[in-house]
Fold this sequence. Notes:
The complex is a heterodimer. By secondary structure, chain A is α/β, with parallel strands linked by helices. Chain A is built from 17 helices and 8 strands. Chain A has a 4-stranded parallel sheet, sandwiched between helices. In chain B, about 25% of the residues lie in helices and about 20% in strands. The chains are: A alpha/beta, B alpha/beta. At the A-B interface, helix 13, helix 14 and helix 15 of A face helix 2 and strand 9 of B.
Amino acid sequence: MEHLILRDxxxxxxxxxxxxxxxxxxxxxxxxxxxxxxDQVTDAVKQSGLRGRGGAGFPAGVKWSFLPKGVFPxxxxxxxxxxxxxxxxxxxxMERNPHQLIEGIAxxxxxxxxxxAFIYIRGEFPYAAECLxxxxxxxxxxxxxGKNIFGTDYHLQIVVHRGAGAYICGExxxxxxxxxxxxxQPRVKPPFPAxxxxxxxxxxxxxxxxxxxxxxxxxxxxxxxxxxxxxxxxGPKVFCLxxxxxxxxxxxxxxxxxxxxxxxxxxxxxxxxxxxLKGILPAGASxxxxxxxxxxAVLDVKLDFESLAPFGSLLGSAxxxxxxxxxCVVWAAKKMLHFFKNESCGKCTPCREGTYWLxxxxxxxxxxxxxxxxxxxxxSVATQMQGRTLCPLGEFATSPVLGTVKLFREEYERxxxxxxxxxxx
Amino acid sequence: xxxxxxxxxxxxxxxGTLVVEAAKQAGVxxxxxxxxxxxxxxxxxxxxxxxxxxxxRGKDGQIETDANGxxxxxxxxxxxxxxxxxxxxxxAVRTDTAQVADARRAIVEFLLTSHPLDCPxxxxxxxxxxxxxxxxxxxxxxxxxxxxxxxxxxxVPLGDLIMLDRxxxxxxxxxxxxxxxxxxxxxxGFQARGRGLEITxxxxxxxxxxxxxxxxxxxxxxxxxxxxxxxxxxxxxxxDYPSVCAHCSVGCNLLIGERDHAIKRxxxxxxxAVNEIWLCxxxxxxxxxxxxxxxxxxxxxxxxxxxxxxxxxxxxxxxASKFAEIKKQNGAHALGGFGGDRxxxxxxxxxxxxxxxxxxxxxxxxxxxxxxxxxxxxxxxxYGAGVGTNLGSLDKNVTxxxxxxxxxxxxxxxRLRLTRSAKNFGAQLIVANGRVTKLAKHxxxxxxxxxxGEAAFLLGMTRAILDEHLENQEFAATRITNLxxxxxxxxxxxxxxxxxxxxxxxEAIRGAARAFAQAPNGLIVYxxxxxxxxxxxxxxxxxxxxxxxxxGHVGRANNGLVAxxxxxxxxxxxxxxxxxxxxxGRAQLGVKGLAARxxxxxxxxxxxxxxxxxxxxxxxxxxxxxxxxxxxLTDTAQLADVVLPAQAFAEREGTFTNTERRVQLFRAALKPxxxxxxxxxxxxxxxxxxxxxxNYGSAxxxxxxxxxxxxxxxxxxxxxxxxxxQLPRPRAGQGNASHAPTEIAMGDLENISSGKTWASVxxxxxxxxxxxxWNEPKGQGAGARGQYTxxxxxxxxxxxxxVSQTPIVQPRVPALYLEINSQDAQALGIVRGARVRxxxxxxxxxxxxxxxxxxxxxxxxMPQNLGGAxxxxxxxxxxxxxV
Lengths: 425, 883
């Protein structure tokens, strides 16, 4: 299969601009700028059905068209703060196929008529940041970035901005605050960034993987692109596979084609040490766990944005973490809540206090000090966080608890009865 | 005006109204922690979650209706924050559902998981929104295991005045937002994240703001407490007495919290027209003078060169007999009086009555150390800002020319309010001074003139207005008698010439002129540095009057003059004629008494000094018989023959008139100390002994006489002045549970006021005609080589009697310094902190240099009220050298 996103797997040194150009690089951008109006580019992206790959799956072209007319300057911000546990797809793209991303940024910038784009990159990705900076410099030396691109009066500057290690800065408005030099805390929405974004100007924020798809759409056409995947979830998708599998890594497939069985057993080489598969976290720590032990049908679901809903979960950014039969779900939930209570920005009450409370409860239960009432308290606390937080982080933080209690309540009860964790004995 | 239905009650509210505010209109109280009507909403605490729906529209875009013809409401799946949701037409809100009740219970429960259970020792206890809302909405018991509690630092000094308890903080950011949005000192912020998110100060020195105390009031828990009041009383044991601040001339309304005959704390009392719900830290903390151990408590008489205690009768008899004796020997002109502008109206009125009608001497003054003429007094009487002017809510239709003022240091709350007008409502500020002041930050136009060039700048504006025919022609034709004659005098002064004389560019003069003349409303704020401009004070005053008149900016609200006087009752002292040439109601007198300088330098045989300290200003010559009436043994009192112990503002009642001419009533809160008496009583007793037959029983009676005798004060009495006075909030469990007693601004903000403002001539008499005054501007050319122009300013924390009695603010009182421009500093080889020598004529002062870009090149600034620099005049040419 030809890789459309992880092209580094097919073409050696595609991070080198000359190699990228040899393989048609920057022709899509040229076509957009020379042959298409900005609105035509946006329309093509709308028609392609491209949906945001950050997790929410919002149609990218529609997002672009939300910018108020005639308000300048405006900005494109690339969300490269890839921080969800189990997600590492953007990093590979930035480190190994950066030009396709730069080209996507350039086309998107042209489409929304912005002259300055920011790549907000996770601070723990110094090498990826260097790769991007090098790629931008190379693109600039070839006239793809900078002044008078392709002899037109279109200008574009791309700035790589390194984050300082806060998960919450992956939330788009916290990300904007961080670029502005403020504490990374989400803003109240509305107003949405499309109207009042970076430095209070209209702003589009797209994920790395979203933008890296854009050159394909312009180069090969929206119809071709829409033919990939399903009618509702179009195009290629990179799945991050990690956990107790033999071959963890990024695997490119199509929406609606890939199943967990194919991903875990065929591509990932199955569970480590021949163990049984106990649980799958399809969206890193942020989505509820699914388990073939509870419902084996989940292994054969054709994965797209909506298909996991009947199993009480979601695909999110497709950061698939696999847990084998030896894994204690209480321990796993505790680890995830430890993460969320550390990463909650603290701005709103239910998230700040709720993540801390859930973590302390899980610690107690895991240590064998919990009571049966604590299990109900866990779900009660998680439930009373839901729908009341300022941003999705607090909402996501309830998933590890509610998901595991729902699937494996007896394991929680066992911790209480046996005064400790079976897996550690 | 969208129509909204809240808990089935329909209300109509202005566009942009938040649901939480609209609910108040419907009589529905939505509990809040982070929301505050004075601050930008942030939606952090989530306490205000309510159900929100909008009319459901069919495919045709039409609103669907139910069987009763009412719109079908599409309810949002999640509850919404009422503090960040803006109303829209047809919106429906439910606050009385199980879902909302559960959300409130959940939020309170969450907050309490990390909040310590130290209410029994918490200063906020009894007036704590968290306590109140827990009682109202919280769960009865906690499900949170106490051993899991998050602990944090309990005592973090957040500056000299505020203590932070990190464990109690609920991260609402009210303090952070107050400092950046209202105080315009963004010195607080959050650090870290999650449960560890905590308040920190970003400034050095820490919490560097003149308004820090307000964060205590608006803190919805006991996280920020006063280092002065902390742990000294329970709030429910305090009795709150409505009073008025005794420091600057803003006249902030306050509540004195009294217990055991002591002031435990001072908190603001809401008055939207004066101080909203704010106080500066000086007003809040520097009250210890009122109960200081150094207070005079008994009359003193000098015997054998030493001041010895005496009875009131002895002291009063001695004063009366000496006054009578001197009057008999040398006539009434041999007696004089200084009635300080810190005294109440009732005291000042009697003081002048004693001199003018009993002693029959015209030698009356209140302006110790001023070189000012009386022009300012006349200007305010004629053109004072119209009644109804609210300096905190001026909008884009008002241009305010602020000249020679530094309200940040002299009238802090007024600076805060002018900033609010500019920032929130779009008022156009033109800030003109010889240096950079804090107010200039939000000015549409900041003008730096050369010291001494104030009058030329104003004249240039006048000339530019007339050149461009921007004057108010109707007003000029009907109300000004001599515009053409005036224009003739002005011929020699082109805008270009005025630019040269003032050091302001032609464009800046023209820009300011257009902005002021073309605005529908115009105010001029006349500061101390312009009043005292040494060389040209008459020309500055007439320049201000001319600008107001030719633009017709007089006689209405938001038009006219606000003169910023130094003390709490400077306006009252002018109103009651404590001047040698003006009488009651600022009436011009035919006779002229001795001026302040003459009174202070022994030109009278007997001098009666009340509530001021002329001897502290140097060059004082003790007259043959000196009477001092004060709270403390001041420099003057130490020289006096008789010392009479007066009462502090907190021990008696009376009225002060603020810088906007608002007469405000203050009540007694404390039992008088020792044998002290109110000033008015002492004056009346002396008067009786001189045969006057006065018989005043209370300050209230004197006010009734003032109202009858002084037309400006007609109709004012203690009852009318007390109308709408805001008393403390209901206590816990009563009334509106969301709000602490000090956090009053939750209701009908704009209609709350107290006090009465007297009307200027321009507004009380629509037919009166005005004459433009011509005074030649002197200007000031560039100085000789090596000379610097001295700017003399005042700083808020001074070395005066009142501030020095409060230890907690002493770290904020700076040592005397000289501010110098960085270019000049470089040329002189000086760095910040280096000692410099300032030479003026024969006087030499040494001080450390402060290089921070607030003075232009060629200008140095020295605070006037830090000791040492007192005698130097504004605009003096001084020489500077490195020590």
